């Protein structure tokens, strides 16, 4: 028995056309520990936009119902050479009802349940998912459970990464995002100190209202002084940056070094011996990362990705993290959405131009059945 | 009993004047495991230039015998706030004769011997050095032993860093330098594969003549193709970059990713899962480091400094490395010099404008007694 339903595909051709389209797709019978999920809700995460919109020109794209064709500029076209011509599904995560299962025990146990899942093709009416990665939602609806994986595990992953590095304080950029608010709740629960960096006064207010102690506004004239004061008070020498482009991480490293070198007894031409680390976990800004020579050579800038982190953390730790998410879905790990769209609605000009901006806290939810 | 002799000092004032001057200095009696070394030779390493010349304007400086005053431009002036007003010695390493020692056994055993040492004020007629860090030179003269520490331990440190990361191949930029040639000899001895990146055909020839297998010329039109081929053949996913500024490391990471993603079965929006690491160990170029979004998020760019590396490697490993240097001073660890200058000669316009360029392989040796 096979099932058919609508699914979104994204194709980048070698001549620079990015095509997003909704197509009728046939889903095979789930095997082993696979389940077939009738998808009810899936968030559009920044990590989805890399493959969905990237740097393409959606202002001047050709729109038709359920389809859009946009030009992909260089260097982003040749930078994605490996995907040229491939018709790719999209959507990391979502939630829905398990309507069929392979013969594996874990899969069979989920039949009839509402679950959060991570199929990698969540922008679809159906999805084949790994039962081991499904989170039963109990009485919660799909909307509540749709973002159970990417943001919660990422936010918990930051805290674990800091702990694994022997740190008890974190700097976070674009800190008023869904993820950033979640991180504030986790840090408050875990006693991890957190320096929040935002760009607007209303975001300062939002985080302060949540009980955040350290919120720094990068639009203020005295941003660097605010940042140094917060780093000094918390001892935060590890940070997480979803923006990537420009000098966001650079400024944090500079402030970290200024705090560290002010505490040194003696001048060193090599800067302080304080380790300073920034993890870039996203590319909200596709311009290059700029690192100035203003913090010696005792620093580290790394990409941070959820999957390799989870592998490094190990099965037991990941199971603990998942249980914590499941038990706190409406509290610590709650997500907010700005708008809901169906699959065709995802591909309208208004929607794309809005969600591709990835404005802080303005997340879209896809409900594939409308 | 105290000793007096000439020593170089460097002072950056808060109003932007960098003053280098030779002054008569008094050296105290060595205590404990200190020795007093009559310095005979000291190399001007790139790591010395950070404090000696930095980004100051030596083209339009005021020169007088044994003294030069140059303007330090922004942002380098405020970037070095921690040293404003401090009169600092300079010169990481050198060699000379031990003429007095503290009462410690290690120090006493060195009296009358010629040693290499790491006093941090080697541009001087005398230096107080830690006997534990001195390397007895036996029959070798000071010129042969002057560069026994920084370059040899750094080159050995690269190989150890790669091994500690489970790697058996290295990429090295500016590879025709004294350090780069040393690294070639070490890698040949140790069976570590090495991709040498240089900027001129004569440097390609020089390294090929030394038996280097992989030498890539970044001035060639097909540089990226050459680099990809060498990375593919060696499997080199860890590199060392003394330049720092610009896109040198960026290009290497990009080539690494292209090699890794070409070997993947399936397209991933996050790039390959191959770890890619560049260590920036110098700042020959003081412009910002530029990292483009063209190699996913599985990468790492870090500052690399010798002292923290040695601490991480541990006493036993460091002792092994030092013994290897001592036994191969005229072979594997030999250095070449372009010119010799005395202390006053260091501060002439001709000399400064020449050595501050840090041209590959054109190192100066300071002989403080002329």
Average residue pLDDT of chain A? 94
Total domain count of chain A? 2
Shape of chain A: globular
What is the tally of helical segments of chain A? 13
The CATH class of the largest domain in chain A, by name, is Alpha Beta
Largest sheet of chain A: 7 strands, mixed
| Range of strand content of chain A | 25-35%
Gyration radius of chain A (Cα, Å) is 22 Å
At the fold tier of CATH, the topology name of the largest domain in chain A is Quinone Oxidoreductase, Chain A, domain 1
Which consecutive residue ranges of chain A, at least 5 long each, have pLDDT under 50?
none
| CATH homologous superfamily identity of the largest domain in chain A | Medium-chain alcohol dehydrogenases, catalytic domain
Layout: helices, strands, pairs:
The structure is a homodimer of 370-residue chains.
Chain A: E1 3-12, E2 17-27, E3 34-44, H1 46-52, E4 57-64, E5 67-71, H2 76-79, E6 87-89, E7 94-101, H3 105-108, E8 114-117, E9 126-130, E10 135-136, H4 142-145, H5 150-164, E11 169-173, H6 178-190, E12 193-198, H7 201-209, E13 214-217, H8 223-234, E14 238-241, E15 244-246, H9 248-262, E16 276-280, E17 285-291, E18 299-303, H10 306-313, H11 315-327, E19 339-341, H12 343-346, H13 349-355, E20 364-366
Parallel strand pairs in A: 11-12, 11-14, 12-13, 14-16, 15-17, 16-18, 19-20
Antiparallel strand pairs in A: 1-2, 1-6, 2-5, 3-7, 3-9, 3-20, 4-5, 7-8, 8-10
Tell me what you see in this structure.
The structure is a homodimer of 370-residue chains. By secondary structure, chain A is α/β, with parallel strands linked by helices. Chain A has two domains: 3-147 and 335-366, Quinone Oxidoreductase, Chain A, domain 1, CATH 3.90.180.10; 151-309, Rossmann fold, CATH 3.40.50.720. Chain A is built from 13 helices and 20 strands. Chain A has helices at residues 46-52, 76-79, 105-108, 142-145, 150-164, 178-190, 201-209, 223-234, 248-262, 306-313, 315-327, 343-346, 349-355; strands at residues 3-12, 17-27, 34-44, 57-64, 67-71, 87-89, 94-101, 114-117, 126-130, 135-136, 169-173, 193-198, 214-217, 238-241, 244-246, 276-280, 285-291, 299-303, 339-341, 364-366. In chain A, the strands form four sheets. In chain A, strands 3, 7, 8, 9, 10, 19 and 20 form a seven-stranded mixed β-sheet that branches. In chain A, strands 13-12-11-14-16-18 form a six-stranded parallel β-sheet, sandwiched between helices. In chain A, helix 7 (201-209) links the parallel strand 12 and strand 13. In chain A, helix 5 (150-164) crosses helix 6 and helix 5 packs across helix 10. Chain A is globular and about 75 Å long. The interface between A and B is large, with 43 and 44 residues. Strand 18 of chain A pairs antiparallel with strand 18 (299-303) of chain B.
């Amino acid at each position: 028995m096979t099932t058919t339903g609508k699914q979104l595909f994204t194709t980048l051709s070698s001549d620079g056309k990015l095509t997003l389209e909704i197509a009728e797709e046939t889903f095979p019978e789930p095997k082993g520990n696979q389940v077939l999920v009738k998808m009810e809700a899936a968030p559009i995460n920044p990590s989805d936009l890399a493959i969905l919109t990237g740097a393409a020109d959606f202002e001047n794209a050709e729109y038709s119902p359920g389809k859009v064709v946009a030009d992909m500029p260089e260097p982003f076209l040749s930078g994605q050479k490996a995907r040229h011509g491939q018709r790719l599904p999209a959507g990391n995560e979502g939630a829905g009802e398990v309507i069929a299962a392979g013969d594996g025990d874990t899969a069979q146990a989920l039949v009839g349940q509402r679950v959060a899942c991570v199929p990698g093709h969540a922008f679809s009416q159906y999805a084949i998912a790994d039962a081991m990665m499904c989170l039963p939602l109990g009485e919660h609806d799909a909307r509540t459970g749709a973002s159970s994986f990417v943001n919660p595990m990422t936010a918990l992953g930051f805290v674990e990464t800091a702990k694994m590095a022997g740190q008890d304080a974190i700097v976070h950029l674009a800190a008023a995002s869904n993820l950033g608010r979640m991180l504030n709740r986790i840090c408050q629960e875990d006693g991890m100190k957190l320096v929040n960096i935002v760009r607007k006064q209303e975001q300062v207010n939002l985080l302060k209202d949540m009980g955040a102690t350290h919120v720094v506004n990068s639009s203020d004239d005295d941003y660097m002084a605010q940042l140094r004061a917060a780093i000094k008070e918390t001892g935060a020498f590890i940070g997480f940056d979803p923006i990537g482009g420009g000098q966001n991480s650079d400024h944090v490293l500079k402030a970290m070094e200024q705090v560290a070198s002010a505490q040194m007894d003696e001048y060193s031409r090599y800067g302080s011996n304080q380790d300073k680390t920034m993890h870039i976990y996203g590319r909200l800004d596709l311009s290059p990362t700029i690192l100035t020579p203003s913090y010696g050579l005792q620093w580290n800038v790394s990409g941070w990705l959820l999957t390799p982190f989870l592998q490094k953390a190990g099965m037991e730790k990941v199971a603990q993290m998942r249980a914590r998410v499941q038990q706190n879905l409406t509290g610590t790990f709650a997500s907010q959405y700005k708008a809901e769209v169906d699959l065709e609605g995802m591909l309208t000009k208004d929607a794309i131009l809005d969600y591709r901006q990835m404005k802080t806290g303005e997340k879209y939810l896809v409900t594939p059945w409308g």
